[in-house]
Amino acid sequence: MSAVTADAHALFRYVLRLGDLSLVLGQRLGEWVGHAPALEEDLGLANIALDLIGQARLLLSYAGEIEGRGRSEDDIAYLREQGEFLNAVLAEQPNGDFGQTIVRQVLIDAFQLELYERMSASTDERLAAIAAKSVKETRYHLRYSGGWLVRLGDGTESSRALVQSALERLWPYTVELFAEDDLDRAMAERGAAPRLADVHAAWTIRLDEILAQATLTRPVDRPQSRHGKRGQHSEHLGYILAEMQHLQRTYPGARW
Amino acid sequence: MHEDRDWPLYEVFIRARGGLDHKHVGSLHAADERMAIEHARDLYTRRQEGVSIWVVPSKAITASDPGEAESLFEPARDKIYRHPTFYDIPDEVKTL
């Protein structure tokens, strides 16, 4: 592979990481439609899901252009296998109860917010533009999810216990978000993406503020070996893809 | 939904764009003002309907009694002289 194509391949994979994170989380949130604890929350969660899928569309379209093999956003979303998805495994974790969905959402919203804020200054113009648009949406997402975490954490005995246990369950998956590998490093070095260490530091401060308000305890970091960013997923992703891709796989090329 | 028992009702007013009045658009349930604003944003501005939101607890609104409509509103019916329709409007006046 020439240097140029190696660079393009790296950028392609990096953009997939971002796009798949939004796509899989958006698909997960969509499962709440018709099932949320109140009609108002049903719409709130669906709005966030649609924002995330909108971000995924921009990112996956861009990935297709970088790759240069004529694949559209739909081809990339609907016709890839599980091992080709590069989202961190946190996004694919089950919704659980409303509290667990909120905890997952806070963890990822805060990550995306710190990431996109910095990526707005990316040397890659497309990534900078996508980040600048997404950061406005993400700020609202965190307002919503963070607000709910405070209500539930600083709520009743049982709501507090539920979100604290969801936090314990999901916390280990956050390590992967900030585990910098060669690809993350290469993107940071060329100025296309922020350093994950910077994102992590800012995320930690933001999380601590929300957790303090919510009277929740931050779990301790534990070493982990999750590699969704490299295509090694938990058992949950296959079920998500089965549902998400079913229509395109059954009726190839089907359109609205 | 059982939340309806717990979450009070709010009336929602949206300003469609700068310079216009806030208009009543509907109501929703929320635990408090902050949540009411968020719900209003999600329910009533998702198609770019507005640039500003007011929420008011429904219980803060005092409404006229429909049973009194006759005495409240009928007396105005035959007083057509209260309408400014007996003036000749000069042609130059465009925006009356």
Can you walk me through this structure?
The complex is a heterodimer of chains A (256) and B (96). With 256 residues, chain A is mainly alpha-helical. Chain A has a single domain, classed as Ferritin, core subunit, four-helix bundle (Ferritin), CATH 1.20.1260.10. Chain A is built from 9 helices and no strands. Chain A has helices spanning 3-30, 39-67, 73-78, 98-119, 125-153, 157-178, 182-189, 196-213, 236-250. The mean pLDDT of chain A is 96. Chain B is of the alpha+beta class and 96 residues long. Chain B has a domain at 3-62: Ubiquitin-like (UB roll). Helix content of chain B is 22%, strand content 22%. Chain B has helices spanning 3-6, 33-44, 69-73; strands at residues 9-15, 22-29, 52-57. Chain B has a 3-stranded antiparallel sheet with strand order 2-1-3, covered by helices on one side. In chain B, a hairpin with a 6-residue loop joins β1 and β2. The longest helix of chain B has 12 residues, at 33-44. The chains are: A mainly alpha (256), B alpha+beta (96). Chains A and B meet through α2 and α5 of A and α2 of B.
Give the arrangement of secondary structure elements.
The complex is a heterodimer of chains A (256) and B (96).
Chain A: H1 3-30, H2 39-67, H3 73-78, H4 98-119, H5 125-153, H6 157-178, H7 182-189, H8 196-213, H9 236-250
Helix pairs in contact in A: 1-2, 1-7, 2-5, 4-5, 4-6, 4-8
Chain B: H1 3-6, E1 9-15, E2 22-29, H2 33-44, E3 52-57, H3 69-73
Antiparallel strand pairs in B: 1-2, 1-3
Features:
heterodimer; A: 256 residues; mainly alpha; Ferritin; 9 helices; B: 96 residues; alpha+beta; Ubiquitin-like (UB roll); three-stranded antiparallel sheet; flat
How do you describe this structure in short?
The complex is a heterodimer of chains A (256) and B (96). Chain A has helices at residues 3-30, 39-67, 73-78, 98-119, 125-153, 157-178, 182-189, 196-213, 236-250. Chain A has 256 residues and is mainly alpha-helical.
